[in-house]
């Protein structure tokens, strides 16, 4: 199994389809770390993920509030740590409790607080492509919590018409 999957997205809907393929494989306690520039599509991804988890309320960017909580098949914690300047500010986020609470946690800009992250998570990096709507999405497992789900992920992406390489 490759350590990293690459997916090309050419629309917000395609990015949401990638998110849906991941949402169906999520387990209690999972963490997804989203990286990528401003406007890369991290929140768009989280919206697709939440919709696929069965969240009915609108999913909005938690840039100013840092943390939104939604009810779906699993509880979804949506964080954006862009405004965190120092690692010790992450204490207030109560990350450990979130990870142990049985929900699934998505952190936008999570790479900026890497020392505060657990040993196992899935990292999604979104890069802007040539066209306005083009994005390259890299999906990599940090630690092995996702290793046994990568084959199922490729299958779920293919079912949604999303090719991987
Ligand atoms: N292929 C694509 N995937 C995701 N979003 C796309 C794509 N093509 C265009 N977009 C648009 O790009 C924008 C992405 O905005 P979004 O808020 O999701 O980015 P972000 O990475 O969360 O930014 P920020 O760092 O400010 O939180 C949206 O307006 C979305 O419609
Ligand atoms: Mg965002």
Give a nutshell description of this structure:
The chain has 165 residues and is an alpha/beta fold. It is built from 4 helices and 7 strands. The protein is globular, with a radius of gyration of 15 Å.
3D structure, described in words:
The chain is of the alpha/beta class. It is 24% helix and 27% strand. A seven-stranded mixed β-sheet has the order 1-7-6-2-5-4-3. The chain binds adenosine-5'-triphosphate (ATP) and magnesium ion. Magnesium ion binds next to helix 2.
What spatial order of strands do you see in the largest sheet? 1-7-6-2-5-4-3
| Binned strand content | 25-35%
CATH topology: Rossmann fold
What is the typical, i.e. mean, pLDDT? 95
Task: List strands and helices in order, with pairings.
Blueprint: E1 4-9, H1 12-23, E2 31-36, H2 42-53, E3 67-71, E4 75-80, H3 95-100, E5 104-108, E6 121-128, E7 135-142, H4 150-159
Parallel strand pairs: 2-5, 2-6, 4-5
Antiparallel strand pairs: 1-7, 3-4, 6-7
Helix pairs in contact: 1-2
Adenosine-5'-triphosphate binds at residues 9-12, 14-15, 36, 38-44, 61, 108, 133, 135.
Quick tags:
alpha/beta, Rossmann fold, seven-stranded mixed β-sheet, 4 helices, 27% strand, globular, binds adenosine-5'-triphosphate, binds magnesium ion
